[in-house]
Specification:
537 residues, 22 helices, 4 strands, Growth Hormone, Chain: A, two-stranded antiparallel ribbon, mainly alpha
């Protein structure tokens, strides 16, 4: 149990940092740094071109590493501190304005284009506002630096699981507990990140201070965890060539199916990236936070300053986090009734239907964007309750996919004699990152095409200290609907797509477990014989 706790500190720290990245970075880049949604999506997509080199390279390095500490642990120890620094660098409080010139995007105006249907349909294009080239270039460099060290931490973390927990049952238990503990790491930034930001008049400085705080809170557990883990699987002294390892991996049909599932799972998880935009704009003005501040001042002698980002976002994220933990905790129990593949397919289909229902209920039955504040608050409450349940497949899919990839690593070793965690999990990470970047760019372009620049203009007015009226936000109904679509229906599409490849995944878990056990016993006996021979000679 002590080792499971130490192992759990890795996802605790990594998920804490990635949660901030997932929920705050897009808003920071688009609205605070001021480069817009499309530019943010373009930078994220370009950084994935670097990942195409960086992730496989890290996988190759891991599979060729032979040290007394193992093949993954040394790299986590080495890169923990650079990882922390690169994360804080993303939020550096810079503003180059027009020092390096400006640029603008030409884009499709989706609302105007739809309006032409029936009247000589044609595509309407518009030119976006001017964006600082200096800020764009800084963001691009910061992304590349961060994702370099992200691969250096995340790839060995993903790869170390079957090395520390070689037996399948204990591995599922460890993954389940670790991901539950990891999800606890996501709660702290939800509660504190935006209140820290709100404590500064200069939002750029506030974001940077909050990022430094969470770089330390997330990075230190990663470093401590790496010092207390022990890899147990015997590694041959010979180092396999990288391209030979790829040939072995992708000759396995189950690996190919899992890679497709990982790609589509990126769509499932992508909607959560729009949660902050939803809270900031779709929920704008539902609560009178100024009145709350005045009441706390008169009642308690101090004012509590809240906002959509600092109140609604934490509430929705915490309820999601609780369901995330519960979903991961029940996976071992559910696996006593069915195998991993069956559970994965069933939960994907059930919750896809649920996501679509949520969209229609909260858009048409109890619209949270209603000018009637009472109806809007009821709609938001209903969404918060339903979101608790529709978030279940996120945690369950993570546990099941990690366990199934680890199973394939064991099978590949049994068939080829090679342990290929590095190559397998680096490509898993690469596929996921490509999926997130590519689909994220497409979705950001879609939201922008529905008029997000009008909301971005309101954000710049808010930064300048102007008061924004709720009616001004609600005037952008098509943009608000697009944001909510990303949170709900997009997830449903991803769930259906991620389930499809699993119908072609063929794996007998009971039979494989027995074969792996026999293989391990044989390998250990051979190792013991080699050691005795070496001692005699």
């Amino acid at each position: 149990m002590k080792e499971i706790i130490a192992f759990s500190m890795l996802p605790f720290g990594i998920m804490m940092i990635q949660n901030v990245l997932f929920n705050a970075l897009n808003v920071y880049m688009a609205d605070v740094l001021g480069i817009g949604l499309v530019a943010t999506g373009v930078i994220l997509a370009l950084s994935r071109l670097w990942d195409a080199v960086n992730d496989p390279l890290m996988g190759m390095i891991i599979d060729r590493t032979r040290t007394k500490w193992g093949k993954c642990k040394p790299w986590i120890m080495l890169f923990a501190i650079p990882y922390m620094a690169s994360f804080a660098f993303l939020f550096m409080p810079v503003d180059f304005k027009d020092k390096f010139g400006t640029y603008s995007f030409t884009q499709i105006d989706m609302e105007a284009t739809i309006a032409t249907i029936g009247e000589g349909f044609h595509i309407v294009r518009s030119v976006g506002g001017e964006i600082s080239m200096g800020n764009f270039l800084f963001a691009a460099v910061a992304f590349l630096v961060y994702y370099t060290f992200d691969a250096a931490i995340d790839t060995p973390y993903q790869s170390i699981t079957p090395l520390v927990f070689p037996e399948s049952r204990s591995r599922v238990k460890a993954i389940s507990i670790a991901t539950v503990v990891g999800s606890l790491g996501t709660i702290l930034p939800v509660i504190l990140f935006f209140p820290i930001v709100g404590g500064f008049q200069d939002k750029r400085r506030g974001y940077f201070v909050a990022a430094v705080v969470f770089a330390l809170l997330g990075g230190i557990p990663i470093l401590l965890a790496s010092l207390n883990l022990r890899e147990k699987v015997y590694l041959k002294p010979e180092k396999i060539k990288y391209f030979a390892s790829l040939k072995i991996i992708f000759s396995n049909k189950n690996v190919r199916m899992l890679m497709f599932t990982t790609l589509f799972a990126a769509i499932t998880n992508l909607g959560a990236m729009f949660l902050m935009f939803f809270c900031k704009w779709n929920c704008y003005g539902i609560f009178n936070f100024e009145a709350i501040a005045e009441w706390t001042q008169s009642t308690f002698g101090f004012a509590i300053h809240l906002s959509e980002e600092g109140f609604i976002f934490p509430v929705l994220n915490i309820t999601s986090g609780i369901s995330y933990m519960l979903s991961m905790a029940i996976v071992p129990r559910l696996l006593k009734k069915m195998d991993k593949k069956t559970l994965f397919i069933r939960q994907s289909i059930i919750f896809a239907v649920a996501d679509v229902i949520v969209f229609f209920v909260c858009t048409f039955v109890f619209p949270y964007t209603s000018p009637d504040l009472r109806l809007a608050r009821i709609g938001l409450l209903i969404y918060a309750i339903l979101r608790f349940f529709t978030n279940f497949p996120v945690g369950m899919s993570l546990v099941l996919l990690t366990a199934m990839f680890s199973d394939t690593v064991d099978t590949i070793e049994m068939n080829s004699g090679e342990r290929l965690e590095g190559a397998t999990f680096s490509f898993k990470g690469l596929i996921n990152k490509f999926g997130v970047a590519g689909f994220n760019l497409l979705m950001m372009m879609a939201v922008n095409a529905f008029g997000y620049e009008k909301l971005q203009a309101l954000a710049q007015r808010d930064l300048a200290g102007e008061v924004i009226q709720r009616s001004e936000v609600l005037a952008n109904k098509s943009t608000l609907t697009a944001l909510f679509f990303m949170l709900t229906v997009l997830g449903a599409i991803g769930l259906v797509l991620q389930a499809a490849p699993m119908f072609f995944y063929k794996f007998n878990e009971k039979e494989n477990e027995e074969q792996i056990k026999a293989f391990r016993e044989k390998r250990n006996a051979e190792l013991e014989e080699e050691l005795q021979t070496a001692m005699i000679s």
